Amino acid sequence: MHIPNTQNIDFTTFEELLKKSKKENLDLQYNQKKHQLELGMQNNWFAKIFLPWDHNWQNDQLVFQSKSAIALVGIRAGQAFTGLIENRHLIDHKIFRAYMVRKKQGKSQVKHLKTKGKSRAGSKIRLAETERFFNEINERLKVYAGQVAVDRWGIACGKTLWPYLFDAEVTPPFSKKESNLVQLPFHVQQASFEELQAISELLMGYHLLLSDEGKDFFEEIFQKPKNDLSTEDDW
Question: Could you tell me which residue ranges the VLRF1 domain spans (predicted)?
Answer without folding.
Answer: 66-205
